[in-house]
Amino acid sequence: MSHDDFPTDDPAVVTCGLPYANGDLHIGHLRTYVGGDVYRRALERLGQETAFVSGSDMHGTPVAVNAEQEGVSPEQFALDWHEQYAATFPKFNVEFDNYGHTHDETNTELTQELVRDLDEAGHLYEKEIMVAYDPVDDQYLPDRYVEGTCPYCGAHARGDECDEGCQRHLEPGEVEDPESTITGNPAEYRERTHKFFDVSEFSEYLSGFLDRLEGTSNARNQPREWIDQGLQDWCITRDMDWGIDYPGDDGDQDLVLYVWVDAPIEYIASTKQYSERVGADAFDWEAAWKEGASDAHPEGGEIVHVIGRDIIQHHTIFWPAMLEATDHTEPRAVMASGFVTLGGKGFSTSRDRAVWADEYLDEGFHPDPLRYYLATNGGFQQDVDFSWEKFRDRVNTELVGTVGNFLYRSLLFAHRNYDDAPIAEATSDEVDERIEEAIADFEAAVNDYSVRAVGDAVTDLARFGNEYIQRSEPWKLVDEEPEEAAQVIHDCVAIAKAIAVLFEPVAPEKCERLWAQLGEDGSVHEATVEAAREGPAGDLAEPTELFEQIEDERVEALNEKLESRVADTEDGEGGDGDESEDEPADEGATDDSGDTDDMTDIEPLSDDRISFDDFQELDIRIGRIEDAEGIEGADDLLKLRVDLGAETRTIVAGLKQLHDVDDLPGTKVVVLANMEKAELFGVESNGMVLAAGEEADLLTTYEDAGPGTKVK
Q1: Residue 521 — very low, low, confident or very high, per pLDDT cuts 50/70/90?
Q2: Are residues 112 and 220 located together in one domain of the fold?
Q3: For a disulfide at 284, which of 5, 242, 280, 702, Cβ 3.0-4.6 Å?
Q4: Is 492 annotated in some ligand binding site?
Q5: Is 183 marked as binding a ligand?
């Protein structure tokens, strides 16, 4: 693995968190898969050798219980869902190079091999632990069928995670006041012998790993707190029949491996299956995943994990410790997405309050507009809210009004007035420079792990194209200044070709259609950014509009359908609005949809109003952070020097655990400048930096407002 800018000479593997084979997919689930697909396509546009892999997580208690309720084996139950997922992802142009599952032979063999390696290296040991047991129902209770109180923060917690509080991973026996989620019976703890991985021995390594880790800042910052608090060793076995057997030969065959042991190993297994299918010359899985396996790639490949933020700890603590202990390549980057909400509230699968993946397609919508919405609506680590109104506005304004409008008007004018392209000999300097700027923005977006910026590079280029053609008015020049008109249209077709290449990661199917309209050879999926520099060369076909307007009446009908469905479900439940009867949350490798089954609703808007005069009294300014440093004795606070135009002020902000301190200088922020001064840990704070949510998402500007600009 290198830390050079992409593209590098080492093979890259992009993975997505494994969907748990236990239920239908909705558009909230799709965010990480679309994000992963956009990112790997963007890498390929740069010329990076890349494998894109994932698979279904087949193991865990919910699969076993639900299979029993349906009267089928756990394997058959999970395989049915696996096959559905494998068919659904391509419908949204999410095209994995390999999509496997955790119960197949490859993953089983690799998992047991890696666990043996951990054991032989002295990293596993036995320990007597307290396991929850339901004395009424006479059964041991694996993690997700226990709930109670988090011993660290006091919040309500699941058996293996404080999902409503501090988000900390919990070991068996840690939850206080345990209850069975199956029967509701109070549980008791009984002593059992289990296997442990000595994660605590890797604290120093993991601190260094987080210093090296690229990706989103939440993936680096959250785990630091857990390391600082002291890592606990990890119980890697469970009392179950369904799963991968612990590979012991001393009577341990009644234990299976914890689902979080075999789930990430599927990343390796899926890459291996891809190599076996295409040949090691096309992609060498060992060169990517094993340090020293290849002379050409002695440090392994570029591993990028795209996940939901609720599984950060597994990918930045347990998984890299396993890889380090067994001489595998550590991840280069972890991109952790925010949740997706629906109209300001969480998805609720139990109440049918969701836009299902198949439903979206059945309504006749093309997949690429949804890909655009999920990829570009906010930074990747921020929460995204979906509503049919917001979806309509983004599609109509940006895809139809900006990108689609430029492409159709340019290509239609060229097709009607010229025989073929190139229309002029070369692209003008102005347009050539603007295309180069878009390519630079695209390359920077890839190296910043920003799928949003990948899309923005294209919409910004299309805005320039609209301004350029409007300013140049070729329809007025075509008769009186034909050479000048030809140059303008050649430039516009050149921009259209660049858009086809650079927008392919976000809208692959639409861009393939655009590529055909441009008369270019081959497939846009094989084109790199070099093709965007070459200018048009093909015979133009008569264009058709790429994106369709969404009418207000359509949105109203969709909202009525959703509201009716939710009301019917609530009536069927007695209309009490109680979420407690929802099915237990998934135990598998991904749980990032934003279901209200797993997260609380967004706080309602306040009914208390202020007057316009009160608002005018707030002096809100744009600032730029000049430097940032920690404050002695304060775990969360930073001392910032912020340029407010007229002066530079010292402001104390609680950002230390949530942002990379070294990345803050140069960041533009929004500051409440007339906040009363306060002294915190001996530092006088003269203002307040504004941020949103638990992750302290800093408010900033979209355009170029400078320090001191007043927010009105």
Answers
A1: very high
A2: yes
A3: 280
A4: no
A5: no
Tell me, letter by letter, the H, E, C secondary structure of 67-114. Answer: HHHHCCCHHHHHHHHHHHHHHHHHHCCCCCCEEEECCCHHHHHHHHHH
Q: Measured between alpha carbons, how far is 573 from 571 in angstroms, rounded to an integer? A: 5
Query: Would you state the pLDDT for residue 13?
Result: 98
235 is in an annotated binding site: no
* Residue 263 placed within a domain: yes
User: Domain with 654 in it: what CATH number?
Assistant: 2.40.50.140
Token pair 């808007």 is found at: 605
Rounded to an integer, the average pLDDT of 145-158 is 89
- Domain co-membership, 515 together with 439: yes
CB atoms within 10 A of CB 576: 9
Do residues 372 and 394 lie in contact, with contact meaning Cβ atoms separated by under 8 Å?
yes
The total domain count for the chain is 4
Q: Which domain holds residue 564?
A: 357-366+551-581
What CATH number corresponds to the domain at position 524?
1.10.730.10
- Over residues 33-53, the mean pLDDT reads 98
> Which of 382, 448, 227 has its CA nearest to residue 696?
382
Could you read off the pLDDT of 475-501 as tens digits, one per residue?
A: 999 888 989 999 999 999 999 999 999
- Buried b / exposed e over 111-149, threshold 16 CB at 10 Å, is bbebbebbbeeebbeeeebebbbbeeeebbbbbbbbbbb
Q: How many C-beta neighbours within 10 Å does residue 358 have?
A: 14
Q: Which residues pair with 629 in a beta bridge?
A: 639
> Is residue 132 situated within a structural domain?
no
Question: Is the distance from CB of 103 to CB of 59 less than 8 angstroms?
Answer: yes
pLDDT digits 0-9 by tens, 576-607: 333 333 333 344 455 444 444 443 344 545 55
Q: Are residues 224 and 86 in the same domain?
A: yes
- Over the stretch 382-410, which tens digit does the pLDDT of each residue have? 998 999 999 999 999 999 999 999 999 99
The pLDDT tens digits of the residues spanning 207-245 come to 999 999 999 999 998 898 889 889 999 999 988 889 999
* Residues 592, 167: Cα–Cα separation, whole Å: 13
Please state which of the ranges 109-123, 326-340, 349-363 shows the lowest mean pLDDT: 349-363
218 and 321 part of one domain: yes
Whether residue 212 is found in the same domain as residue 250 = yes
Whether 422 is covered by a domain: the verdict is yes
Residue 57 DSSP symbol: B
Same domain? 649 vs 528: no
Q: What integer pLDDT is reported at residue 421 of this predicted model?
A: 59
Residue 345: its H or E element: strand 345-346
Report whether pLDDT(663) > 90: no
User: Which tokens hold the place of 709?
Assistant: 């600009």
Q: Report residue 50 as tokens.
A: 């890349």
Domain check: are 312 and 393 in the same one? no
CATH number (domain holding residue 97): 3.40.50.620
493 and 571 assigned to the same domain: no
pLDDT of residue 486: 92
Residue 707 φ/ψ region, left for φ over 0, alpha for ψ in the -120 to 50 degree band, beta for the rest: beta
